[in-house]
Structures are given as C-alpha cells and as structure tokens.
Design brief:
Strand content: 25-35%
Number of helices: 6
CATH architecture: 3-Layer(aba) Sandwich
GO molecular function, one term: acyltransferase activity, transferring groups other than amino-acyl groups
Helix content: 25-40%
Strand order of the largest sheet: 7-8-6-5-4-3-2-1-9
Number of strands: 9
Distance between the termini: 38 Å
CATH superfamily: Gcn5-related N-acetyltransferase (GNAT)
Domain N-acetyltransferase: 25-188
CATH class: Alpha Beta
Protein name: Acetyltransferase
Structural class: alpha+beta
Shape: globular
Number of domains: 1
Largest sheet: 9 strands, mixed
Order of helices and strands: EEHHHEEEHEHEEHE
Mean pLDDT: 86
Low-confidence stretches: 1-11, 196-206
Radius of gyration: 17 Å
Length: 206
C-alpha cells in the first residue's frame, strides 16, 4: 500500500442498513412492499427531469428485483425516505460508488411529489451525509446536480457541499444542452458545518 493511501475506515461497511431518524424525515431500508410506491415516484415527470432520466415505462419485475435486493448490497447504501408526519414513503437517498481506500463515495437523492417543498430533502440529506461522516468515517462525499436545478443546489450548499467544477453540456433536455455541477463536502468541512452535534439516531433495521 502506498504511504499516501489512507487505510479503510474502521467499521466502514455498507452492508449495514440503518434506520436514521431526523426531525422531519426517517430513512429506512427498502422492502418489497415499497415497489409500487417507488414505481409511481420514478415515473413522476419532475423526478425524470431533475435526474436527467429518459421517459420510459419501468418494468415491474425489474423494479421488484431492484428494491427487493437493496438490503443485500455491501457496496452501496439505498434507503427509503419516509415523511415522519404521515409515515409515507416519498423517495430515496443513496450512498454509492464507494472508493474504500480513499474513504469517499457519491450521494444522490430523489423525492416524489408528496415529499417536496417541506424540508424533507434537506433533512434526509443531512441524515445520510451525517451517517457517512460520523458513522462510516468517510473523508469525502460528492454529488452531481444539473444547472436547471438551483433549488437542489441551494439545499446541498446548506448541507455544507461546495461546488468544484462544471461538466459542460452533459445532458440534452428538450433540445437544450444542460451543464452539471460537481459538488462535494469533506469530513472537516462537515464537522465545522455541523458544529459537532450528536449524529443521527441510528436504530437497528427490522
């Protein structure tokens, strides 16, 4: 091992699927019962636009196979976002592209219509990013956000993410080329941003 390559963080294991509880959102592992709800969320036009996904019909069998096996994955963490006020599943938050030697990963989040404009995205982002740094001992968490989504960019900035650069004209949307902004937050920046409060409450998965 190169002396400049940090060792993997002790206990950094995506095979553990926690339940994280915030003020407005609760993050939990997926179950097979979530497939119909996620199918509806993934077909939402705003979700398709903001994620740069093509308009398509999602195959029920593929969706079932995907969400029924999320808890079996040890190289990524997929959690459902639940509105604590209603108990309803409204989206997902994911840590993926795990670079174990360099203690980094990529983050993404998507919310359906019933999860937007009420602070659930901000709360869910802080929960899962806090888990990445405070429990998994990550050094860096990164993401991409399209230029036509300034609301999401502001939410990420409020969680401590910093813009690093622009991938120019990476998405063709309705005849227009759209840039994507690369953002990240480092462990020391997260610590300063959070002021070192107690991390998210972690409950055992069912």
């Amino acid at each position: 091992m190169s002396p400049r390559t940090p060792p993997a963080a002790p206990g950094c294991d995506f095979s553990v699927k926690p339940v994280l509880t915030g003020e407005k959102a609760l993050l939990r592992p997926f179950s097979e019962d979530d497939v119909p709800v996620m199918a509806e969320i993934l077909a939402d036009p705003e979700v398709l636009r903001l994620t740069g996904s093509p308009v398509t019909d999602f195959d029920p069998e593929r969706l079932h196979a995907w969400y029924a096996t999320r808890s079996e994955q040890d190289d990524r963490l997929d959690l459902g976002v639940v509105d604590r006020a209603s108990g309803e599943l409204v989206g997902e938050a994911v840590l993926m592209e795990w670079d174990e030697p360099n203690r980094s990963c990529t983050f993404r989040i998507l919310l359906g219509p019933r999860g937007r404009d009420r602070g659930l995205g901000t709360d869910a982002t802080r929960l899962i990013v806090g888990y990445a740094f405070e429990r998994l001992r990550m050094h860096r968490v990164a993401l991409w956000v399209f230029a036509f989504n300034p609301r999401a960019r502001r939410a990420y900035e409020n969680a401590g993410f910093v813009a690093e650069g622009v991938e120019r004209e990476t998405l063709l949307h309705e005849g227009e080329w759209i840039d994507a902004v690369r953002m990240s937050v480092l462990s020391r920046e997260w610590a300063a941003h959070r002021g070192r409060p107690a991390g998210p409450r972690t409950l055992p998965a069912d």
